[in-house]
Structure formats: C-alpha cells, structure tokens
Amino acid sequence: MGCHQCLLISAISVIIFGITDINASRFFSVELSGANVTYFDREVLKCMNLRIYNPKLASMDFTLAKDLSKFNLHFLLNIIRKDERQNNIMNVTMSGCEALAYNKNGNFLKIVLREVHRVSNLPKKCPLLKEIPYAITNFTLKDDDFPITFPIVVWQLTLKFSIADKTVTNIVVDGRVRKM
C-alpha cells in the first residue's frame, strides 16, 4: 500500500468517523488558507461576503432576495496530493433544512455545523427569510474538535447551495493540516 493510500485511509477514518479524545495533546493545526465564492445567483442571494481573517478564523454574511423553505447543500471534501491530484473523502448532499437542525455525532459535518450554529444567527429550522442579514461571525477551527491523530494534508471543501438542481452559490474553502 502506497503512502498516499495510507494517508487517505487515515483521513477517511478520522474525518468521517470522528474518533476524538478532547483531553489528549495534538501535534497538528487545522488551518484555513483561502476561500472563494465561485458562483453567485443574484435572483436568490441579494448579497454575500466571505472573509478569512487568519488561519483559524473566518466570517460570512448574506442576505436573501426571496424566502427559502426548501434548498440543498452539497459538501465535497478532497485531499490534495503532492502531485496536485485530488482524492475525494466526503461527498454528501443533504436538505438545507436538515443541515440547519443537524445534530449527528462525531464527523466532519458535525464539527462544521456545530460551530456554524454557535457563531451565527441562522435559524435551527426553515424557512430562511428574505431581507434578513444572516451572519456567521468568527467561525473558528479548533484543533481539539479533531481526532488526536490526524494526517498532515492539504484539503479543499466545496459547498454548493442549490434549489431544485439550480446552483445558487458555490463556495470553495482551501486549508491544510500542518505539523506543529
């Protein structure tokens, strides 16, 4: 088994299954390195801003142009190899309303959505209302939320927000796990 296969298996097990020990020391840092909104539909989104302040801290705000009671979120997580090829380790599509109330234990989506709920004014259920300025302020990546053993990798998370198979926005977040 090659090095990248071991890395992939390790990444899949810790990210998807979320084996964590909050009392153990971590010798890595999970960091953000960039974020872009690659597509934006003005019929649905009146405005959207995304900012990364430092490797651990990001914020986003948006206002809808119309009420939304039904929408989908597609999460795609890839590991970027040294040869620039990508290995997909998560590909999940879920109802946006389900994501607002998401409370499953121990996986990557739980970590992200729990922090979104903590630092945002998003409701815990649908609908999302037009003309309300929604904000995710000071979203923080906390190393203690991740398993004690974690591979050193470069990753890319793509979040696609859609209504009836029509893309509303596409957000790409780049990051890395680095040794401390």
Automatic annotation (TrEMBL):
SMART domains: DM8
One Pfam family linked to the record: DUF1091
Origin superkingdom: Eukaryota
Protein name: Uncharacterized protein
Lineage: Eukaryota, Metazoa, Ecdysozoa, Arthropoda, Hexapoda
